[in-house]
Amino acid sequence: MVEPIKDLSRLCIHTITTKPWGFEKALEEYVAHGVQGISVWQNVVAELGVNKVGDLLAASPIEVVSYVRGGFFPATTETKRNQAIDDNKKLIEEAAAIHAPLLVLVCGADPGQSLEDSRNQIQDGIEALIPTAMEMDVRLAIEPLHPMYADTRSAINTLAQANTMAESIQSGFVGIAVDVYHLWWDQLLEQEIKRCGENDNLFAYHICDWKVHPEDMLNDRGLMGEGCIDLKKIRGWVEKAGFNGFHEVEIFSNKYWQMDQLEFLNKIITNYQKYS
Ligand code: ZN
């Protein structure tokens, strides 16, 4: 039996979730509502500049959980692959500058080549980043994505694939972000979460829900409790695997972005405690 969530001490929200607010408003409202963690999306840094974002976060009681998102390593040309590595080094530096201990990687895929080739290039790309990650003290999290994104967004589609890669890289700076939206359907999920924890690779846990008949492949994620993911069960597995970090709410939703964001934030908090 999974213990109910009693407070907001593990609640983190990704800034993209309340995109219409902009960063400063989001930060103010999260803190005012008792949200303890924030994951910052790259658009925030692009808009405000890394120094301003870093200063605002340093002055806030909120904990910075992650910087989202780097990756996109595979490409059919070496020039593009090298460019991706350079881009990611810059993102690691930005993560450090905004006090984020973790950079989430959407690893990428190039439809012009096999998924296996893309996976090899992902591993090469991540390995090339380890010295920068160590220097900046920013860890890297491979985020396996649902197979519907295997064409262009990620050649890593199961937790088993991510585990195998992280174990092969074997660095304390490289682990995994488990996102329920991408992994809930996998019959091996329980055992792969256990494996991830046993190898100290469980770095992050992202939550939302899978709406039945989503209207959009990307921007119709559900609020916890609104879909068919057994969030409590998965949280139980994650906790049993030794994870005691933040539960990061990450919802891209055309529907919720149109809603009053204060009302939405209150719904996030209510549903987080009720259904997660
Ligand atoms: Zn995620």
Comma- or semicolon-separated keywords:
276 residues; TIM Barrel; eight-stranded parallel beta barrel; 8 strands; 45% helix; binds zinc ion
Provide a descriptive summary of the structure in words.
Helix 2 (42-48) packs across helix 3 (50-58) and helix 4 (78-97) runs parallel beside helix 5. Helices cover 45% and strands 15% of the residues. Strands 1-2-3-4-5-6-7-8 form an eight-stranded parallel beta barrel, surrounded by six helices. The mean pLDDT is 98. Strand 7, helix 9 (231-240) and strand 8 form a beta-alpha-beta unit. It has a single domain, classed as Divalent-metal-dependent TIM barrel enzymes (TIM Barrel, Alpha-Beta Barrel). It has helices at residues 23-32, 42-48, 50-58, 78-97, 115-136, 159-169, 180-183, 189-198, 231-240, 254-258, 261-275; strands at 11-14, 37-41, 63-71, 102-106, 139-142, 174-179, 202-207, 247-249. With 276 residues, it is an alpha/beta fold. Bound molecules: zinc ion (ZN). Zinc ion binds at residues 143, 177, 179, 206, 250.
Ends distance:
13 Å
How do the helices and strands follow one another from N- to C-terminus? EHEHHEHEHEHEHHEHEHH
Name the shape in a single word. Answer: globular
The CATH topology comes to TIM Barrel
Radius of gyration: 18 Å
What low-confidence regions span 5 or more consecutive residues with pLDDT below 50? none
- Tally of structural domains: 1
Per CATH, the architecture is: Alpha-Beta Barrel
Bound molecule kinds, no repeats: zinc ion
E-strand count? 8
Q: How would you sum up the major sheet?
A: 8 strands, parallel, barrel
